[in-house]
Design brief:
Layout (H helix, E strand, L loop, with lengths): L10 H21 L2 H8 L3 H5 L5 H25 L4 H18 L1 H10 L10 H31 L7 H13 L1 H4 L8 H17 L17
Helix pairs in contact: 1-2, 1-4, 1-6, 4-5, 4-6, 4-7, 5-6, 5-7, 5-10, 8-10
């Protein structure tokens, strides 16, 4: 699971992942090849094949890294010793900012489970698909746990947890589809956009008063 310590990868490996994420985002899985990624990176195919035996393996590695980034975005709020509303506020802010700061990775992440239709032909690929499904479920469970705590204490309202949770996550994932980085988009602007998306999503749970993030003490 992603709560375990990460093993540092060589710089070249990381550069390949970034280039691949950008290619998969812009051109899609079918139109992207190892050649495409190599040209985008300004490297040889051999450099990529040194780490990844196939395009599917490269795609899975990009999605693995994207999932790590997504968990990193919500982990502080999930682990915080705060009220459910405050925890959810921190989780959602981290989530939305991750969608904007790691745009290419997040697009690949959201498209990743569609890889089932391409088929998993090797043991490594089958294991990757099972891992992706497990991680997706764990990610959703973290949100479900905090929302259930809020419902239990009366600070959140949910009719159907499954429908509400999926709709909630769609709202948080939204910036992947409509946000595009512009020159001058600093931290202040990103925070303002994230807060607006978060307020919209939290209202769907009956949370009308969202505490300013500056007033939240993370706890121990």
């Amino acid at each position: 699971m992603l709560a375990t310590a990460k093993i540092a990868k060589p710089k070249r490996y990381e550069e390949i992942l970034v280039a691949a994420a950008e290619c998969f985002q812009k051109q899609g899985f079918s139109a992207t090849s190892i050649d495409t990624v190599a040209r985008h990176l300004g490297a040889t195919k051999g450099r990529i094949y040194h780490y990844f035996p196939s395009k599917v393996d490269l795609f899975n590695a990009v999605r693995d890294r994207a999932m790590e980034l997504a968990f990193d975005g919500i982990r502080e709020g999930y682990d915080a010793k705060l009220s459910p509303v405050e925890r959810l506020h921190l989780m959602t802010l981290g989530h939305v900012k991750c969608m904007m700061l790691h745009h290419s990775y997040m697009q690949v992440l959201l498209d990743g489970l569609q890889m089932q239709r391409f088929g998993a032909t090797t043991e490594f690929q089958r294991e990757a698909m099972e891992r992706h499904l497990h991680e997706r479920n764990t990610f959703e469970t973290w949100y479900r746990e905090v929302i259930e705590l809020g419902v239990a204490e009366g600070t959140m309202a949910v009719r159907s947890m499954s429908v509400t949770l999926q709709s909630f996550l769609v709202a948080l994932n939204g910036p992947v589809f409509w946000y595009r980085p512009r020159e001058g988009d600093g931290e202040e602007k990103l925070n303002a956009i994230a807060e607006e998306v978060v307020v919209f999503a939290l209202k769907g749970l009956g949370i009308d008063a969202v505490p300013p993030i500056s007033t939240i003490s993370r706890g121990a």
